[in-house]
Amino acid sequence: MYDFLTGPMLYLSLAIFIGGCIWRVVWYIRGLDQKLDRVAYKAHLEHGLKHAARSVIAFIIPFGSHTWRAKPAMTIATFFFHFAIVGIPLFAPAHTTLMDQWLWIAPLSLPQSVVDFLILMFFISAAFLILRRVALPEVRILTNWQDVMVLAITIAPFITGVLASTHTGDYQFWLNMHIFCGEVMLIAIPFTKLSHFVLFFMSRGQLGMDFGIKRGGLKGTKFAW
Amino acid sequence: MPQGTLCRALPVQNEEELKELLADTGGKKYYAEMQELDVNADKLAATLQKTLKSRLRTWLNICAKCGMCAESCFLYRIHNRDPKQVPAYKIQTTLGEIVRRNGKVDNKFMQHCMYTAWAKCTCCNRCGTYCPHGIDMGVMFGYLRGLLFSQGFVPWELKIGSGMHRVYRAQMNVTEEDWVETCEWMAEEQQEEYPLLEIPVDKEGADIMYTCNAREPKHYPEDIAEMAILFHIAGEDWTVPSKGWEQTSLSMFAGDWEACTMQVKEVYDAMERLKPKRMVGTECGHAHRATVIEGPYWAGREDGLPPVPCQHYVEWLAEALRLGKIKIDPAKRIKEPYTIQDSCNYVRNHGIKKAVREVMSYLADPSYYRPMEPDLEHNYCCGGGGGFNGIGMYRKERNFALMTKRDQILATGAKLVIAPCHNCWDAIRDLEEHFAIGIRWSFLKPLVVHAAIIPEHLKPQEEEEMEEEA
Ligand code: SF4
Ligand code: SF4
Ligand code: SF4
C-alpha cells in the first residue's frame, strides 16, 4: 500500500494537480472576453496588469485591504490557515527529506519548531472557520455539503499527519492515511472551489484590471482596496 | 398563455406598442400576464453557453462562501443583517441556480430572480471590492438582468424605459424637435440677463459637445439653462447635437443590451458628426456610466473608449474653476455645513473622486465640509440605484433602503447635501419626503450659477450706454 501511495499514486496526483491547475489558468485567460466582460484587456494590457498586481498584493498581505481590516479575527485565521496549507507540505522537514528522495528537489526546510507552531495555528484557525460557519447566520446560509467536504479534505491531511508523526495508534496506517488524504487534496484542487489556489490570482487580478482599465485607472485613479 | 400581449420576451418594437404598455396603468395587465409567461429553457441554456464565460463561471465556482461580502452590502445591513440579503447568497440562489440547472427553471423561479435582481441589488458594485476573490455581484446581477430581460421577466417601468430608448433614443418621449425647441426656449429666457447667451445646436468642431438626461428637457429645463449660463460665463466654445444628445440608458438597468447599443451609438454618431474636442455630460451618474464607461463595449470599440474624450460635468466644473474661467463671488459662498453624496456610477466606478470636493472648495470654506462615513469609492448607494428608484412595485423596499443614506446624512449633522447625480438626487429628495429629516439637496449647477461672478462684458448694458452707442 505504502509503495503504491508513494509511487504511482503520488505521481498521478501530482500530475493531475499540476496539469489541472495549468488547465484552469489557461481556460480562465482564454475565456476572458473583452466584449462580454466589458474590459478592454488587449488595448491597455500593461496598464491593466499593473492594476491587477496592485489588487492582488493588497489582498495577499494581511490587513492590506479594507476588507481584511474590517474583520481582524477572520483575517488572522484566514492567513494562518493558508500559510500552513501552502507552507507545511512544501517546507516541513519530514516532507523535504522525502522530496529529495522521490522528486530530486530539495527545498529549504523550516525548523521543526516553526512547523509545530504553524500546525497549532492551523488547527486553531480551522476551528475558528468551522465555528464561524456554524455560528454566523450569514455564513451558515451560504454553506452546503460541498463546502463541508472541501473543508474536510483540507483538514484531513493535517489530522492524519499529526497522528502519524506522534505515533498515536497504528503508525503505518496513519502514515498511509496521511499520504492518501494529501493526494486527495491535490486531486481535488483543480476540480473544486479549491481551484482558487490559482484562480484567486486570476479573479482578483481581473477585478484589478477592470478597475485599472475601465473603472478609473486610465484616469490615473488608484482604487483604494 | 405562453406570451402575453404586453408581457413577453420580445422587446418593444414600435411607438404603438410602447403606448399600449404606458396605457396599462401601474402595469396591472402586464404583471397579470407575467404570471402565465413561459420560460424558454432551451434559449436560456443557449444564451448561457454563448455568454457565460470564464470570469462569471469562476466567480460562481470559487466563491469561498465566507460571507465576507455580507457587511459590504448596504441592503444586508439595513435589513437587520438578514442572511437572505448576503450578496453571495442572493446571486447563488438566482444566477447560480439557473446555471446549475442549465436554464431549466420555471416561471415562479424567474419571478423570484426578478425580485432579487431589481429589489435586492442596486448594482452598486461595492461588494466586489470587499470580496477577497474580487467577486463582483453588481456585475453578475447586471448579467442576470440581461437573462431575465431576454425572457420577458422585467419590471414594467424598465420594459417601458428600454422601449423608450428603442423608439425615441431617449429614456422619455422627447423627440429631436422637442429637444431643439427646449434649447431655443431656454436660451431666449436667459437673454434678458445674459444678452449674448446662445445654445448652439450642431456646431461642428466646437471644443465641447454637451449631452444630458432626457428628464432635463422633459421636466427640468432650468437644468439646461444653468448649463448654458455656465458655459457662457466660462467663455467656452460649445454645442449640443440635435440628435444624440441623450446620455442616459434605462436599458442598462433593464438588461436590454441591444437597446443600450442603439442608444450609445446615437451619441457616438453625434461625436463623429460634429467632431468636438471633447464631450461633457450632465450631472448624472448612470448616464456617465452608460455613455462613457460601458458604452464603448456595447458599441464594439476595441480600445474601450468613446470616440472623443468624455468628462462628467463635475470634472468640467472643477477645471473651469481651477483655470479661473468661472469665478465665485466671495460674498455668495455657502456658509453652512454640507456633505457630499458620492455616486457609485462615477466615483466607485470611474474614480472621479476629487472633482466634487474641488468644486466645493471654491463654493464654501473647507471647514464646512462634513464627510459621510464611509465615503469616496467606499460610499454606500443612495438607496435608489440600478433602476430601484423607478419601480413602482418595489417602492416599499426602495423606501426602506433609503434609511442607509438617511442615517449616513444624519450622522454628518449637515443640512445641505450635494448630490451631483440625478438618481442620487431623486433618492435623497424621496428620503426627505418620506422621513422628513429637514435637509436640502442640490446639484452643483444651481449653486455655481448662484455664486458665480458675471463678467462685465456679458452683463446687459445700461440703457444710457446703449443710447450713447447708438
Ligand atoms: S466574500 Fe466573496 S468569496 Fe466570500 S462569500 Fe462573498 S462572494 Fe463568496
Ligand atoms: S452590488 Fe451593491 S447592492 Fe448589489 S449585492 Fe453588491 S453591495 Fe449589495
Ligand atoms: S443611485 Fe447613485 S448612489 Fe445609488 S447606485 Fe446609483 S450612483 Fe450609486
Automatic annotation (TrEMBL), chain A:
UniProt KW keywords: Membrane, Transmembrane, Transmembrane helix
Transmembrane segments: 12-29, 73-94, 114-136, 148-165, 177-201
Record-linked Gene3D superfamilies: Transmembrane di-heme cytochromes, Chain C
Protein's UniProt keywords contain Cell inner membrane: no
InterPro entries assigned to the protein according to its UniProt record, in alphabetical order: NarG-like_sf, sulf_resp_HmcE
Signal peptide: none
NCBIfam families xref list: sulf_resp_HmcE
Protein name: Putative HmcE, 25.3 kd protein in hmc operon
From TrEMBL, chain B:
PROSITE patterns: 4FE4S_FER_1
Keywords of this entry: 4Fe-4S, Electron transport, Iron, Iron-sulfur, Metal-binding, Transport
Annotated ranges, domain Cysteine-rich: 338-424
Organism whose genome encodes this protein: Megalodesulfovibrio gigas (strain ATCC 19364 / DSM 1382 / NCIMB 9332 / VKM B-1759) (Desulfovibrio gigas)
GO molecular function, one term: 4 iron, 4 sulfur cluster binding
Residues in 4Fe-4S ferredoxin-type domain copies: 60-135
Gene3D superfamilies: Alpha-helical ferredoxin
Full protein name: Putative HmcF
InterPro entries (alphabetical): 4Fe4S_Fe-S-bd, 4Fe4S_Fe_S_CS, Cys_rich_dom, Helical_ferredxn, HmcF
Keyword field contains Coiled coil: no
